Amino acid sequence: KVKSNNLDVKVPGSEMETEEKGTEEESTRESDSNILDVSSDYPREKHISIQRHLADLEKLANLKEGEKKPCPLCPEEKFRACYSHKLHRHLQNLHWKVSVEFEGYRMCICHLPCRPVKPNLIGDQTLSKMGAHYHCIICSATITRRTDMIGHINRHVNKGETESRFITVLAPKSSHEVLKELATDVQVVPNYSTPQKTDSYFNPKMKLNRQLIFCALAVLAEERKPIECLDAFGATGIMGLQWAKHLRSSVKVTINDCNENSVTMIQENCLLNKMKVKLSTKEDDNDEALGDGEENTDTIEVTKMDANVIMHLRSFDFIHLDPFGTSVNYLDSAFRNVRNLGIVSLTSTDISSLYAKAQHVALRHYGCNIVRTEYYKELAARIVIAAVTRAAARCNKGIEVLLAVALEHFVLVVVRVLRGPSPADDSAKKVRYLIHCQWCEERIFQKEGNMVEENPYQQLPCDCHGSMPGKTAVVLGPLWSGALFNTGFLRRMLLEAVQYGLDEAQPLLKTLVCEAECTTSKHLATHSPCEENKQEECGVYIKTPNASAESCLVPGKRKSNEVIRNAAKRQKAENSAEHPAFYYNIHRHSIKGMNMPKLNKFLHYLSEAGYRVSRTHFDPMGVRTNAPLAQFKTILMKYSTPTYTGGQAEGPLHRAEDLQAGEQAAAAADDKVEDAEFLEDDKSGVADATFTKDYPAHCAAD
């Protein structure tokens, strides 16, 4: 007998000589809290080292203040009896932290002489040290190393052996926290916001992302009904539940996850929202329905598969990918079976590589060379779209970008799939390299063609290479060079956001509509409702609720009517003016010693000069415009005021020279005149006029 905390552990002498590694435990132990009577069907009880919580392990020691207690998992010669605070640290650090977790249970390390150890010449100290082991919760084997124990459990799982041979007490379910978002209740674990600690990860900061995806799906549901949509990485199932609860019969929702705990959580959340659950696994073809569904007849299919497997096996109209980190590993299977004119949306959270903080990772995942620029967020969106384009082209499919959003925590891309080699070729041609000047932040996409140019710097509008020493530009990419937004789709997303009361998504969608049209917010509502419903997407008319009979063609049908064909060509010509690529940061190009004008006033000044201009969601101080960088700097300097005249009102320094300055800027852009020389000349001209007007002749001469 070995005495340990009122617990008698019997180790027969014959077993000490004959038992080897992996033998089953023959002794019985009694515990005050967690052990039930042994039934005839199951002759074993779980070992005391297998517990659910640290508090259950402390109950075995019967901790009391002012009394010394021995450790229940260590013999007295290894760890003597001590007070409660020291024993608590011992149990936590020496037993609980090095445990192996399986289905809510922790298999703590045990130092009791349960396992036979070969005799040695050193003594009992080494004997007790070598006797540290783990007890398997499934087959009761004793294994020495933690890594071997993890592999042992994995072999049980691979064989389908997950039922314990021990009699265990069904511990009460941990109190889950219930969160509510968009009238949908989800049950989450207490540490739901920590992805390293839980399988069912739920991020409250991604609420805006979920609302944008919901609006995109709602727009697609208006085009054709019903549609099959897939949430490939369900986690808690919040996104799929929102789809099914609000769109109802318009969608057939499938929520997938490869983790068993996440699938269980999804089923519980479906029942919590009074939804029927249709279980489907890769091994079993027979489906099983759970839930009463008395108040709501909607059914959600829950699958437990790898995301690549389910997308290869089935076809969907809408697919959303939101894995941990990059989503490039799932693009090929996503475009393999997606239906024509369907939508694929993906959320990338590997912002360290996309935002040029880990450039080698971006090269490894996306095959793209990038550097940190002032427009790094838009650069990240174009990197992801380029990877999507190449994956779709491998499946003989093209894409049309409907939405591209890059915020602090994620990059969201929504594309429409166009089947056929011709759309695939057209999309692949839009993947090009970018020439970026590191001195003035000027940028331009390389010209199409395979011929090598003698001097690639000639493509840049600036002349930094001629005035600065060394190499001034870098080649970035390959990147997506096409449009990032579809105005008609964004307007219908805004209507859906207003209909369903998505308050957080409405301001962003308004900004995106202005950015897509490259106009300011005051011009947002100038279009009539008829024009909003007559948007053309990917060469066909998309049916909307208020569209006329001529514009309500079924997607994919050939347009036989000559009048409708001419209207489509005319509308395509009107919408062909895409928004300018990239943007300028007003702080990056500010003049030292000058106070810049307000951003909205500066946008007005650029618009008065005849350029398209808008704000951008990528950067709160960014300006998207088709004005050259030289003209951008000229207008910024003209409407800036010196720092020392703080009381002077904002405005141009000299109205009489506006026309002359504009002509000089246009000539500088065409002839590639040096920016520094032009700004110096303009500044000297302004200074001469100022002195002539405001000061006496002798002061001006001085």
From TrEMBL:
Cellular localization per UniProt: Nucleus, Nucleolus
UniProt entry keywords in alphabetical sequence? Isopeptide bond, Metal-binding, Methyltransferase, Nucleus, Phosphoprotein, RNA-binding, S-adenosyl-L-methionine, Transferase, tRNA processing, tRNA-binding, Ubl conjugation, Zinc, Zinc-finger
- Please list the GO terms describing molecular function: tRNA (guanine) methyltransferase activity; tRNA binding; zinc ion binding
Chief subcellular location: nucleus
Taxonomic superkingdom: Eukaryota
Q: Which reaction does it catalyse?
A: guanosine(27) in tRNA(Tyr) + 2 S-adenosyl-L-methionine = N(2)-dimethylguanosine(27) in tRNA(Tyr) + 2 S-adenosyl-L-homocysteine + 2 H(+)
- Provide the leader sequence positions: none
Q: Where is the C2H2-type domain?
A: 136-156
Biased composition of type Basic and acidic residues is found at 19-32
One GO BP:
tRNA N2-guanine methylation
Q: Report residue spans for region: Disordered.
A: 1-38
Specify whether Ribosomal protein is a keyword of the entry. no
Gene Ontology cellular component annotations, sorted alphabetically: nucleolus
Q: Which PANTHER family match?
A: N 2 ,N 2 -DIMETHYLGUANOSINE TRNA METHYLTRANSFERASE (PTHR10631), TRMT1-LIKE PROTEIN (PTHR10631:SF1)
Question: Family assignment?
Answer: Belongs to the class I-like SAM-binding methyltransferase superfamily. Trm1 family.
Q: What is the recorded name of this protein?
A: tRNA (guanine(27)-N(2))-dimethyltransferase
In its UniProt entry, the species of origin is given as: Smutsornis africanus
